[in-house]
Amino acid sequence: MKLVSRDLEKDGAGQVTLVPEESEDMWHAYNLVRAGDSLRSTTVRKVTTESSTGSSSSNRVRTMLTISVEVVDFDVQACVLRVKGRNIQENQYVKMGAYHTLDLELNRKFTLAKQLWDVIDLERIEMACDIAQTADVAAVVMQEGLALICLVTPSMTMVRAKIEHNIPRKRKGSCSQHDKSLLRFYDAVMQAILRHINFDVVKCVLVASPGFVKDQFCEYMFQEAVKLETKVLLENKPKFLQVHSSSGHKHALKEVLSNPAVTARLADTKAAGEVKALDAFYTMLQNEPDRAFYGINQVETANAAMAVETLLISDQLFRSQKIAERQRYVALVESVRENGGDVKIFSSLHVSGEQLTLLTGVAAILRFPMPDIEDIDNDSSSDED
Amino acid sequence: MSRHRNVRGMDYGEDYEGYDDVYGHSVEDDYGVSPSTAEQFIFQRSLQHHQLASFLEEGEEDLKREEEADLARRDSERSLSDPTNFQKPQLSDIEEAQLQSCLEEVRNVVGETVPERTMIEMAVTHHFNFEKTLNALLDQQESSAGNNNNMETQRGLGATAQPPKKQPSPGRTKRPLPAAAAAVASADDPAVASIAPEVAKLSMPSKGARKGFVLGPVPLPSEIGDKRRKSAVGKSGLRGDFLDGMTDGNMKSESRGKLPTVMSAPDLTVMAGSSAVLPGALASTRRESKTSKAGTIDISKEYSKRQEGKQLINLVVIGHVDAGKSTLMGHLLYLLGQVNQRQMHKYEQESKKQGKASFAYAWVLDETGEERQRGITMDVGLTNFETPNRTVTLLDAPGHKDFIPNMITGAAQADVAILVVDATRGEFETGFDSGGQTREHALLVRSLGVTQLAVAINKLDTVGWSEERFNEIVGKLGQFLKQAGFKESDVQYIPCSGLTGENLKDKAKEPALTKWYNGPSLVDTIDGLKSPKRPIHKAYRQCVSDVFKGMGAGISIAGKIESGGVQVGDRVVIMPTAEHGQVRGIYIHEEETKWACAGDHATVVVTGIDQGNIGVGSVMCSVDHPIPVASRFRARVIMFNLDVPVTKGFPVLLHYQTVSEPAIICKLISTLHKSTGEVLQKRPKCLTKQSNAIIDIETSRPVCLELYKDFKDLGRFMLRYSGSTIGAGVVTEIKR
């Protein structure tokens, strides 16, 4: 993301002009744009004109529109952000108040104006504009008969392909069907890798599986690559890294990212950092349950006592449509920071973020045990459902 | 240019001849029509002929009526207005209903072979009692058809199958046979007396429980019929499908030594009274009709028969990696004669070539190239053997940590287990102490419902058959197994060596061992393991552990039948995708059978399903009682040793029977007291090790589940997280 201009008032209102450069920037934009903001961008609109004789003609015109945002919609697979709202700046084609849906496009600048830019938003912009953080990793998590091809970017994990094959078991006296369908499965995975992984961008391909599936697969893939002279695979052979995982399902990616061999190779990507933080939380919960809490009420209580050492919070909470709710979380983050605590904002697209989101979205490791929080826990959370 | 010249010099007359050739006949002739299609769609006079003839004799009115039989069945008005002079007796509403149901039953057996009029008359005279009516009808036919048949037999070898005057009941012996079959039958006739006992004898030894035939005098004619039927099977294509089914049914019943026990007492007397009737044949006809109504009756009887013979047990072999599970079982199979000498020699040579001579026995069970190359079992190896008193389905589970999902699949299908431990110094300790699979495996099989355990203390030869070592291991294991919930009386310890074969089949001979050990050998121990009670009276459930394309039509689905039974011809539904199909064949231990029931490891060939829609983890069920499908359920779980506590939102792998599905613990309801079960804490923050709790679990895709209270074996599941088993549970409530 490129920051073109930034124009903020003292009270936090103002506007920012950004140019998204890669698909991940759309995710950042999704986290920035909320209902009530106004968004200005170039777009294509079908305009119907009526001539003096009464015949009407319609044509598509590219025009600049400013809308007041009502609905924000993000397509994870295609990385497209659609923003729907009413026009608030009349121009020659579009009347005031007319509905329009802006599709934010790559490399087209957009201007976002808000009544209040809070610290989370500003951080998000900063993070999005930080080039150093772009480290793309592809991961193939597999087990016999199941493979997932994922793309791991600093703030997203996208499942690009899921390959599921039925592999007959070995049977007494015959395992030819097993072997044959296993090869067919490997071939399908290899094709998916070629189709979905862009080796120009990806710095590393992790192949993870339990047992020997990964070894077998890599062996097969490079043999085939030699046979078929698939240059792209042969050239990028050093990028492949075999890692152990306990299964071929998506959440095994968490194990992969916390593997020391991987973290060494990937430097410190955000994804790996998040996994580490969540692991630390669980370890604390195991060893000193009074120093680890989750749930907004409990964490807020702990924060009031200035006890929060590390705050883990899912970015999903900041996308809340209710302004008051969002402000509550923003206040929590600011307050923890003020008290010298560490705040980790998890991307809800990562596996670890997904888990945190299910764990109420907010968790904290405390500096000192607070056993009495547990009691509040039961009273306050019972009204949640 | 040469081609042009050809054109000029072409003889057009010739061409037109060809034209005539092409267009002169109908198009169908160009296509090959399969015999079965032809049978279904193409009218063949020869097929219909005898039926028409039989009706002609009774007059044209009857023929007409037969054609309308279908309509008439639904519309009794119509049969009243039938052009015959037959008037249906005046009946009250209730009687009318009784009549209809009785007629339906009768039709199930005799089909369209008896005129409706006769049926109704018979039904009325016998007060709508189905069995009596049927008997009477069949008696009547028997006498007429019997004459017919005698004539045929007399005609001898060259006789062409003459269409009989009246078609006899399909299940009966005296069916018109195709020429060849008739010939065989007639050839058999003189030898009847000698053949009949022979048949009885022949079918006796195979399954052990053949006491049926001994009861009463062997009905000779039925035996001839049996022979004939057997010889006619190959040619049965001439008859309709319906008849075919019946023939098979009969053959099945006879070959399995089915008794005419389905009959009620009065019927037996009727039978005894009528000399012309063949008790065996009639009974089987009758049984067939019952089977179509309630298959379970049949299967439970067959099952109880089989129980009198060798009991079936499903045995899983577990233990730490490299404890020698596959070698032990491979050697055992070899000693029991399941692997022939030549094969074994081949394995020995090949394994030597790879520099793994000690793996030769393991190769019996590890068949994929990968497994042999690496020298470890990866997937469950399935085979079977027999001991003096047991038929054993052997599941050889992998011991490596990464293949525990496969091991669970195997263990879920087992009734009893052999835990193999390595007695070598240091090896037992690594396998047993934290990080080894000995503990985890034992806990898993216990949680999966295995109660009897044989512990094979393997590789004792490496420690010089030391008694102290044996006792040391027994002591350590005993304590742990008791904690894990095994009764002391259900656990046995056997010293042995998989590589040398000591104390496997025969009692120990090694002096160093016999000095202090005088117990049973491994085979003897297996022989003493008890088979659990099988829920054969419950609805049919078979967990799919393998799907593959077998020979011929249909898709082969393998797995253990958890409850109920299945037989050829049954309609089944495969959940969770609700694929409907029909059973075409059943194989148990690679032998074809007609039925299978709970406990069997059966491969069922099913037609009419899409292979893409079923996979490992699907459950095959009866159409009437499909298994519930759920994506969220409540469960009572017990946590094992956890590295990290379980909170809500915790991602786990749910292992349930053969399926492994990612799931999320979405709610912690309460923690319970371990023994009393009272609620300790509502909505706990997290679950720590050894805790007992009620939780809600949501799977990413719907899975088939049964409540624990309904189906014990199908209500159990395991939870795993990042390579270790974190808990086991039972399903208490299905949410959605």
TrEMBL record, chain A:
Tell me where in this chain the eRF1/Pelota-like N-terminal domain is found. 1-130
Question: Per its Swiss-Prot or TrEMBL entry, what cofactor is needed?
Answer: a divalent metal cation
Gene Ontology CC entries for this record: cytoplasm
The identity of this protein, by name, is Protein pelota homolog
What InterPro entries does its record include? eFR1_2_sf, eRF1_2, eRF1_3, eRF1_Pelota-like_N, Pelota/DOM34_N, Pelota_N, Ribosomal_eL30-like_sf, TF_pelota
Keywords assigned by UniProt?
Answer: Cytoplasm, Metal-binding
Q: Taking the first listed entry, what is the main subcellular location of this protein, grouped into a coarse class?
A: cytoplasm
Q: Which organism is it from?
A: Patiria miniata
Q: What protein family is recorded?
A: Belongs to the eukaryotic release factor 1 family. Pelota subfamily.
| Job of this protein | Component of the Pelota-HBS1L complex, a complex that recognizes stalled ribosomes and triggers the No-Go Decay (NGD) pathway. In the Pelota-HBS1L complex, pelo recognizes ribosomes stalled at the 3' end of an mRNA and engages stalled ribosomes by destabilizing mRNA in the mRNA channel.
Give the molecular function GO annotations.
metal ion binding
Keyword ATP-binding, does the record have it?
Answer: no
Q: Does the keyword Cytoplasm apply?
A: yes
UniProtKB/TrEMBL annotation, chain B:
GO BP terms, alphabetized: regulation of translation; translation
Q: Which family does it belong to?
A: Belongs to the TRAFAC class translation factor GTPase superfamily. Classic translation factor GTPase family. EF-Tu/EF-1A subfamily.
Gene3D superfamilies linked to this entry = DNA helicase RuvA subunit, C-terminal domain, P-loop containing nucleotide triphosphate hydrolases, Translation factors
GO MF terms listed in the record are: GTP binding; GTPase activity
Q: Which UniProt keywords apply?
A: Cytoplasm, GTP-binding, Hydrolase, Nucleotide-binding, Phosphoprotein, Protein biosynthesis, Translation regulation
Under catalytic activity, the entry for this protein gives: GTP + H2O = GDP + phosphate + H(+)
Gene source species: Patiria miniata (Bat star)
The places in or outside the cell where this protein is found are: Cytoplasm
The protein, known as = Tr-type G domain-containing protein
Q: Which InterPro entries match?
A: EFTu-like_2 (IPR004161), GTP-eEF1A_C (IPR054696), HBS1-like_N (IPR015033), HBS1-like_N_sf (IPR037189), P-loop_NTPase (IPR027417), T_Tr_GTP-bd_dom (IPR000795), TRAFAC_GTPase_members (IPR050100), Transl_B-barrel_sf (IPR009000)
Residue ranges, compositional bias (Basic and acidic residues): 62-80
Question: What are the transmembrane regions?
Answer: none
Q: GO cellular-component terms in the record?
A: cytoplasm
| Disordered, as annotated region | 59-92, 143-182, 228-259
Bias (Polar residues) occurs at: 81-90, 143-153
| PANTHER family to which the protein is assigned, alphabetical | TRANSLATION FACTOR
- Annotated Tr-type G domain residues: 310-536
